[in-house]
Structure formats: C-alpha cells, structure tokens
Amino acid sequence: MRLRNGDFYTNVLTNKLYRLNEDDNSSWYLSLRDEEDYHETEKKSGRDMIRLIEGSYKKS
Q1: d(CA 34, CA 59)
Q2: Cβ within 8 Å of residue 17, ≥6 positions away
Q3: How far apart are CA 53 and CA 29, in angstroms?
Q4: 5, CA 20 to 30 Å: which among 17, 37, 52, 54?
Q5: Alpha carbon 10 to chain centroid, angstroms
Q6: 6 CB contacts (<8 Å, ≥6 apart)?
Q7: Which segments of 1-60 does DSSP mark as H helices, in order?
Q8: What pLDDT does residue 13 have?
Q9: Are 14 and 58 in contact (CB under 8 A)?
C-alpha cells in the first residue's frame, strides 16, 4: 500500500469519510470536516498510518 496525500478513506465502523493528509514533517493524519467542526486524528508515521487504514478504513 502507498499513502497519497489527499486520498479519501471511509471508516468501516462509522461510515464517515476522511481525507488523508501529510504534514511538513512527513507525519500522516486523517481529517474529517462535518457540520459541527473540523477534526484530525493523531499524527502517525507512514507505517503506523498504513496499519490503521488497513484495519479500519476502505479507500473511497
């Protein structure tokens, strides 16, 4: 699997759509924008983000 900044993933448990982002330090996080606010997941290394995505998300 290869991470790409800007790809979208759906959480299989909540069915919410998240955007994959890479920051200036090459850390990765998922962001969600809903009616209430803007949310970000904890920043992770590339390998840890791949594990998270493969376990709980599907590419949209």
Answers
A1: 19
A2: 8, 9, 10, 32, 60
A3: 10
A4: 37
A5: 9
A6: 19, 20, 21
A7: 46-56
A8: 95
A9: no
pTM check: above 0.85: yes
pLDDT one-digit tens code per residue, 27-50: 999 999 877 778 898 999 999 999
Q: What is the mean pLDDT of the chain?
A: 94
For 1-60, strand residue ranges (E) read 8-11, 17-22, 28-33, 38-40, 57-59
- Could you tell me the two tokens for 42? 């904890």
Nearest-angstrom CA–CA distance, 34 and 57: 18
Task: List the domain boundaries for the chain.
Answer: 15-59
